[in-house]
Design brief:
The protein has about 110 residues and is of the alpha+beta class. It has one domain. It contains three helices and five strands, in the order ααβββββα. β1 and β2 form a beta hairpin. The longest helix is centred in the first third of the chain and has 14 residues.
């Protein structure tokens, strides 16, 4: 049986992250930026044990936003309006380059 090292893969992911300039945003990090008045339903995205970001829904009142923090090249992190908690094809995609602009964009879409 041959030993397989994940070290080259970890190094490659590190290079990709530094190339895009984006930090990894996991569910807990994003969840902690919202108040208890928000409903936050996020799950981490993991491929073969490698965490890549998170996706799910954030709601306030009757407004819902779908978010995906798995970096999409130079576009960044994606968020958009949703009609319900299973609406993965909702409104127009919007993009954020960092955690602060992502939280601000989500809050803007959640305003009545």
């Amino acid at each position: 049986m041959h030993a397989f090292s994940l070290q080259p893969l970890a190094h490659l992911l590190s290079l990709i992250s530094s190339f895009t300039g984006l930090d990894m945003i996991l569910a807990t990090k994003l969840r902690n930026r919202f108040l208890s008045t928000h409903t936050v339903a996020l799950k981490n995205i993991s491929v073969n044990g490698d965490k890549r970001g998170c996706s799910g829904f954030i709601a306030r009142g009757d407004r819902i936003v779908y978010v995906n923090t798995e970096p999409c090249g130079s576009l960044g992190y994606m968020y958009r309006t949703a009609k319900h908690f299973k609406d993965y094809t909702g409104g127009v995609n919007q993009w954020a380059k960092d955690l602060d602009s992502l939280v601000h964009g989500i809050d803007t879409l959640l305003k009545p």
